[in-house]
Amino acid sequence: MALHQQVLLVDHINAIREIPGFEGCTIGLIVESNLGNEAEYQDLACRLAHLERIVVMNEDTSHERLGIRTTATLKRSMAFMTGLLLMHGKIKFHRHLFSVNGRQSALQLRQQLLGQFLNYKRIVKPAQDEWDTSKETFTGKKGGNKDDILIALQLGIYMKEVAYAKPEKYQRLISCAA
User: Fold this and answer.
1) Confidence of residue 165 (pLDDT cuts 50, 70, 90)
2) Interatomic CA distance for residues 19 and 17, integer angstroms
3) Higher pLDDT pick, 177 / 130
4) CA 30 from centroid of its chain's CA atoms
5) Among 64, 97, 117, 170, which is disulfide-ready with 106 (CB 3.0 to 4.6 Å)?
6) Domains of the chain: which residue ranges?
7) pLDDT tens across 15-62, in order?
8) 126 φ, ψ to 5°?
9) SS3 letters across 73-86
């Protein structure tokens, strides 16, 4: 993790804790672990900054490391859950929505998130022969577009459910939400 990213992470956590009602909150870090040791680097950044009450969520299904492995199956579940919540008006934007890098306003962040959701697609690649299986992917990455903000939202929604389903593992997060 680059120093710039470490600074942004620490600044973001500190900014969250400046919001009234969030001063003493325990923060769950939900980090994709598809490429490398991103979650370990973010955990290290928090420890080096002496941040307390941080829980790095760990649901990597194939490795003994921190983070969340976003498989096609997980992305299908996340897209379904997020779509249902949007359809029923259950996703709201906090009045203190912010970006610590200062490049986007709250309105721009909302618009970018909704744009990423509209661009998000299910792609099925057919089997090449009778011994092969079709491959399903979910992505918003097309023509230079990204889906990072949408994936972050979806991970947050999904991992909230995981935390409540595994209270012995995520007790520190659940006790703060009660």
Assistant:
1) very high
2) 5
3) 130
4) 5
5) 97
6) 3-177
7) 889 888 888 889 999 988 877 788 888 899 999 999 999 998 888 766
8) -65, 155
9) HHHHHHHHHHHHHH
User: Across-strand partners of 136?
Assistant: 124
Looking at residue 176, its pLDDT comes to 64
Q: Whole-angstrom distance between the N-terminal and C-terminal Cα of the chain?
A: 33
Distant-in-sequence, close-in-space partners of 124: CB < 8 Å, separation ≥ 6? 134, 135, 136
| Euclidean distance between CA atoms 91 and 116, whole angstroms | 15
DSSP letter string over the chain?
--HHHHHHHHHHHHHHTTSTT-TT--EEE--B-SSSSHHHHHHHHHHHTT--SEEE-EE-SSSSSSEE---HHHHHHHHHHHHHHHHTT-----TT---TTSSS-HHHHHHHHHHHHHH-EEEEEPPSSTTS--EEEEE---TT---HHHHHHHHHHHHHHHHHH-TTTSHHHHHHH-
Q: What is the pTM of this model?
A: 0.81
Model pLDDT, residue 8: 87
Q: Which tokens hold the place of 8? A: 């942004």
**Rounded Cα distance, 37 and 28, in Å:** 17
